[in-house]
């Protein structure tokens, strides 16, 4: 009967990881709904970017307070995972602190975990205060109402509870405390349990141990339903991000083909399309829904953790316009989730008469963008909200001819006289002879 | 003013060292034309063999592309590339960061591959080659703040060339709260120049002007004709136009020399 806890542990572990794997598959399928874009070039530069931006947290420290706090939580997350490994082995084999044979090194490890745990607790509390007491503007923008705000706080509570459980687990571990090595923090917590019978302390220790590992599995599965996927997706996202100068917008190939045909003096405008080509639907220009975006843009949407640095740097948002680059990313993700659920329920996508444009992102938001790249620069994980805005403008202009009237004037001028204003092209050099 | 065109040069069987891409603002906008002329004076002073396309130049297509009209952009691009390649242009300099960005980044994949420089980069290279000397003179000791144009700064990482030129003028270069990578837009990019802004509580150029005024400058320097317009409007809105001048980096240098 002694192996029953091990069996229960194995079942919980498999269920936790299995459910997570199922959601990861769903995530991958949804991202693949995007159009193809080739990011297989320049692997060494891409690895460097990932190492620098995701692993090295380089862009986080642009804002030092949040950046340093974040690095603490990030290190805590990475390093305390070694402890989770021990817990898993102990749980499966019924051992107790299997790594303790490492002796002095183990002491250093556990001591390090305990210090990190307390630092994480402090950092997470600071985060909570920033969100809820100081109420930093970027956490109170309109798109942060309701679930996004609760989601942010819930993650902080999760982390607090996990860290407390870890410390309590160590504090109530009698053999571990007796060693008087590595318990740099928990030795101050242990006295709280003085006077309780040893059996009760042991129950507390076991409970904390179980709740800690179950809590981690629950948190793992919570990721998919929250903004918190960035802890995984920040890595592929920084790897696949554009390597071009920020000002370079892609040239649409479908348009290039049409333009070349128009400029080709030998092209026959009345020629019948080649055999077999007339079945293919004509290429749609720009994006009105998530499936018109490319997979990197969709990966961007899942990676966004709603920190709002983009929005707080956006000139349009700062001056009271409706545009918020963070909302563009959140809308893209929410619509993609909706499309994904639709596919889950119907096998293939069943028309729902909704789209990213208008149902989620309004035209007013799209036209407020100055394409200044402040949002792209601000993002700590290389998300590009501007490329989505541009693709949606392309749809509005090329598929719907729905540009604001003044922009239509500007474009007519360029077409007619090669300048955005109505001046004669023959007058282009007049400045030479003026005063 | 000596401004040869590519056509004239070709007729004489000569190839200029660099093509000066004037841009629509530089050709037609009254304020921007002054920048164009200041830059030409500097080119002439440094004995740079340059030429312009003149009436053969046409909009790069930048505002059309940012507005979402990829068709119009590519039509403009392909037409311009045909002209540029016809003249076997190798090197282009322009005083407009929007033209700079488009020519440099978006023309190559359409068949137009040139070495493209912003005029501040080009002036800096003239300085380094000893072809142009900058003397402080007129602006000595003045407080100058430099506004980073988005399409020069963040978009292409050019932050230092304009600043180095300004420092040569013996002025006090003061940075705004938001500068370089974190610089705030003037509000004109992404085709906003050609339309009314969306509803909000402030215009972007007013916000940016306020940031500039915080540095108590004598001069707001810019490197873009559109930023220049936006900042000039902002300074006027704050009724500071009598005390504060908005000037392009090329104008600062040309005026310092009283060219």
UniProtKB/TrEMBL annotation, chain A:
Name assigned to this protein: (Fe-S)-binding protein
Keyword Phosphoprotein: no
InterPro entries linked: 4Fe4S_Fe-S-bd, 4Fe4S_Fe_S_CS, HdrC_iron-sulfur_subunit, Helical_ferredxn, NarG-like_sf
GO cellular component terms listed in the entry, alphabetical order: plasma membrane
Residue stretches spanning the membrane: 6-24, 60-82, 102-129, 154-172, 207-225
Keywords: 4Fe-4S, Iron, Iron-sulfur, Membrane, Metal-binding, Oxidoreductase, Transmembrane, Transmembrane helix
Boundaries of every 4Fe-4S ferredoxin-type domain copy: 295-326, 359-391
N-terminal signal peptide: none
Sample GO molecular function, one term: 4 iron, 4 sulfur cluster binding
């Amino acid at each position: 009967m002694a192996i029953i806890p091990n069996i229960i542990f194995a079942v919980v572990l498999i269920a936790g990881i299995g459910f997570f794997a199922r959601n990861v598959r769903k995530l991958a399928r949804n991202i693949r709904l995007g159009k193809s874009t080739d990011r297989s070039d320049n692997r060494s530069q891409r690895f460097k970017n990932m190492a620098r931006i995701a692993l090295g947290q380089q862009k986080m420290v642009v804002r030092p307070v949040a950046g340093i706090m974040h690095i603490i939580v990030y290190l805590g997350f990475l390093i305390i995972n070694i402890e989770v490994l021990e817990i898993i082995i102990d749980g499966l084999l019924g051992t107790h602190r299997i790594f303790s044979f490492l002796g002095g090194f183990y002491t250093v490890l556990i001591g390090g975990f305990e210090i990190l745990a307390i630092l994480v607790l402090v950092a997470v509390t600071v985060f909570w205060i920033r969100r809820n007491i100081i109420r930093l503007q970027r956490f109170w923008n309109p798109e942060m109402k309701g679930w996004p705000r609760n989601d942010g706080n819930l993650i902080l509570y999760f982390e607090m509870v996990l860290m407390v459980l870890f410390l309590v687990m160590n504090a109530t571990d009698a053999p571990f405390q007796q060693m008087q090595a590595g318990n740099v923090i928990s030795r101050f917590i242990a006295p709280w349990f003085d006077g309780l019978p040893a059996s009760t302390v042991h129950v507390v220790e076991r409970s904390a141990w179980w709740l800690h590992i179950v809590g981690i599995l629950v948190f793992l599965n919570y990721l998919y339903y929250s903004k918190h996927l960035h802890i995984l997706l920040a890595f592929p996202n920084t790897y696949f991000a554009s390597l071009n100068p920020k000002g370079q917008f892609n040239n649409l190939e479908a348009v290039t083909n049409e333009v070349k045909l128009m400029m080709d003096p030998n092209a026959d405008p009345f020629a019948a399309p080649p055999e077999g080509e007339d079945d293919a639907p004509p290429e749609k220009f720009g994006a009105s829904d998530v499936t018109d975006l490319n997979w990197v843009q969709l990966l961007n949407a899942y990676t966004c953790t709603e920190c709002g640095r983009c929005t707080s740097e956006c000139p349009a948002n700062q001056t009271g316009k409706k545009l918020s680059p963070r909302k563009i990313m959140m809308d893209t993700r929410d619509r993609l989730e909706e499309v994904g659920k639709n596919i889950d329920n119907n096998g293939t996508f069943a028309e729902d008469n909704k789209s990213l444009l208008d149902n989620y992102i309004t035209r007013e938001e799209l036209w407020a963008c100055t394409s200044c790249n402040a949002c792209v620069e601000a993002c700590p994980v290389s998300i590009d909200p501007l490329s989505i805005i541009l693709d949606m403008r392309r749809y509005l202009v090329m598929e719907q001819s729905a540009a604001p009237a003044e922009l239509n004037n500007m474009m007519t001028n360029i077409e007619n006289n090669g300048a955005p204003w109505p001046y004669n092209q023959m007058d282009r050099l007049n400045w030479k002879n003026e005063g | 003013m000596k401004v040869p065109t590519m056509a004239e040069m070709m007729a004489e069987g000569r190839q200029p060292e660099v093509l000066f891409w004037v841009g629509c603002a530089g050709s037609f906008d009254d304020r921007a034309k002054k920048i164009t002329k200041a830059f030409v004076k500097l080119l002439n002073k440094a004995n740079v063999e340059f030429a312009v396309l003149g009436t053969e130049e046409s909009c790069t297509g930048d505002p059309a592309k940012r507005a979402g009209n990829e068709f119009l952009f590519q039509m403009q691009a392909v037409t311009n590339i045909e002209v540029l390649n016809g003249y076997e242009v190798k090197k282009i300099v322009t005083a407009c960061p929007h033209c700079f960005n488009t020519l440099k980044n978006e023309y190559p994949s359409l068949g137009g591959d040139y070495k493209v420089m912003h005029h501040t980069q080009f002036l800096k290279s003239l300085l380094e080659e000893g072809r142009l000397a900058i003397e402080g003179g007129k602006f000595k000791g003045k407080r100058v703040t430099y506004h980073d144009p988005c399409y020069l700064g963040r978009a292409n990482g050019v932050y230092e060339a304009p600043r180095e030129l300004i420092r040569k003028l013996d002025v006090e270069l003061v940075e705004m709260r938001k500068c370089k990578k974190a610089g705030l837009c003037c509000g004109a990019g992404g085709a906003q120049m050609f339309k009314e802004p969306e509803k909000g509580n402030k215009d972007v150029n007013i916000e940016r002007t306020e940031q500039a005024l915080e540095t108590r400058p004598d001069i707001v320097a810019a490197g873009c004709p559109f930023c220049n317009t936006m900042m000039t409007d902002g300074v006027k809105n704050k009724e500071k136009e009598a005390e504060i001048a908005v000037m392009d980096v090329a104008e600062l240098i040309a005026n310092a020399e009283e060219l």
